[in-house]
């Protein structure tokens, strides 16, 4: 990721006040603003799109798989990858029941649960901290990074399963209501 390059620059003997430190601080501020914005949008609600719902967990699974083989592939990481996705999916499915799908003026929207969004923020910030402030070439750090990323993918996969089921139910209910009102 981008942070790997900045972390490498910051560990090359730079001191406070150098341009690399200011770049890192600016990057942290930008990332925090993006995290806050995404969190608020997830909690307030977004327009429902199956593509959007499936895109995030799929992207995280692909990204996890890329990091699985970068820089070196360890067979134990594959086990952590699979177990993290499975555990995340199980927990995401449970927490996904707290997410909601609702209709407003004929359009469907969804809201993520506060717990799921909070977990995502904690894991995202943890990954950034690992990448910025620790030796990114360490096997332990790489493994923790893969576990956090894979677990996040599983959480969103579990939530996506729930959201799609809720959307299908809400759409069927709306169609029945429309059919009942036209029969009267």
Descriptive account of the structure:
The protein has 184 residues and is mainly alpha-helical. It has one domain. Helix content is 77%, strand content 7%. It contains six helices and three strands. Strands 1-3-2 form a three-stranded antiparallel beta sheet. A hairpin with a 2-residue loop joins strand 2 and strand 3. The longest helix has 45 residues. It is elongated. The N terminus is likely disordered.
Secondary-structure element order, as H and E? HHEHHEEHH
Distance between the termini: 59 Å
Topology, number of strands: 3
Helical fraction equals over 70%
Note the overall shape. elongated
Computed Rg: 20 Å
Task: Label the structural class.
Answer: mainly alpha
What is the domain tally?
1
Low-confidence stretches: 1-16
How does the major sheet shape up? 3 strands, antiparallel
Widest beta sheet: strand line-up: 1-3-2
Overall pLDDT level? 83
